[in-house]
Structures are given as C-alpha cells and as structure tokens.
C-alpha cells in the first residue's frame, strides 16, 4: 500500500518569515494549519473539544479539523471587532479640480453634525416626511452608507429643520 499523505517539511524556516501555525500538542495529526484564516484564530481544547478562538473578541467557534475553515473565514469577514481604530486610515476623500485635470486626495473624517444638517436640508428640499428617519429601509441604507452615523429621531430632525429656518430667516 502506498502512503498518499503529503510530505511535511519539519526544517526551520531559513528566511525568518512566519509559517502557518502548527496543531496544538495532543492532537493525533502532525499536519500544520495551512489556511491563512488561522492567523486570526487560536486553536484550544475546551472540555475535550477543539475550539477556534477569535483573536479580536475571544469568541469560540468550532475548531475541529473535520469542520473545515469556511465558517472561520465567514466570521473573519464579518467580525466587527477587527476594524481599524482610526477611521481616517480607511477612507480617502477625492475631489476633482475645476479644470478636471487633477485629482486631489485627502483624509476623510466623519462629522455627525454635518451629516445631520445635510439630512435636514434633504428633507426640506425634497419635501420628504420627517418620519423618514424612522423607516427601517432608510435606517438600513444609512447604515450601509456610513456605519458611523448615529441615526437621529424625528424630533431631532424637526429641531434641525427649525434651526435652519431660523438661520435663513
């Protein structure tokens, strides 16, 4: 019978680059964890079962080798705790010049007050009902556009609209 298991290189890495983490002691297999998703999880045995523990919020997911890693990859893509702390590193603001020949790139910083004023002006301009801010679809849209925007109540929008009116009067 021919052994069809892949050969494992046990030699140390001469370049010093990080290797895929190996399985924890006590596992019957000596195979390395090859999926890149394991860079974001620790494998630990809890109550006799292997668990994958998220490095960002310590959540416990299935960590058995037979379970695969697609559930870990899905969690990694949606994990809210792995985002960068400084939002300006993630977003860039671009604006074209008047001539249209050059593009200026600048850091983007979110400002809740500016967005509130823009929302009030949009409601005034298009004569939308003030209650639009409480519609589920509108809340989902705003969250998809800018997760940092803290949705406001219809009373707050009403107050903002009256402030705009007083300022222009």
TrEMBL record:
Domain of life: Eukaryota
Sequence segments annotated as region (Disordered): 1-34
UniProt GO MF annotations: sequence-specific double-stranded DNA binding
GO annotation terms (biological process): regulation of transcription by RNA polymerase II
Any single Gene Ontology cellular-component annotation: nucleus
Compositionally biased region (Polar residues): 12-21
Protein name: Zinc finger BED domain-containing protein RICESLEEPER 3-like
Organism: Canna indica (Indian-shot)
């Amino acid at each position: 019978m021919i052994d069809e298991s892949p050969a494992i290189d046990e030699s140390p890495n001469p370049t010093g680059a990080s290797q895929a983490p190996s399985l924890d002691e006590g596992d019957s297999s000596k195979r390395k964890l090859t999926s890149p998703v394991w860079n974001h999880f620790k494998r630990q045995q809890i109550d006799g079962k292997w668990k994958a523990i998220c490095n960002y919020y310590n959540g416990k997911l299935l960590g058995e080798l037979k379970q695969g890693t697609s559930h870990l990859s899905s969690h990694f893509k949606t994990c809210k705790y792995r985002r960068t702390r400084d939002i300006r590193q993630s977003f860039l603001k671009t604006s074209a010049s008047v001539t249209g020949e050059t593009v200026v790139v600048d850091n983007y910083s979110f400002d809740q007050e500016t967005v509130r004023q823009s929302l009030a002006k949009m409601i005034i301009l298009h004569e939308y009902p003030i209650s639009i801010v409480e519609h589920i679809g509108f809340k989902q849209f705003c969250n998809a556009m800018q997760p940092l925007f803290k949705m406001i109540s219809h009373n707050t929008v009403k107050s903002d609209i009256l402030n705009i009116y007083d300022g222009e009067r």
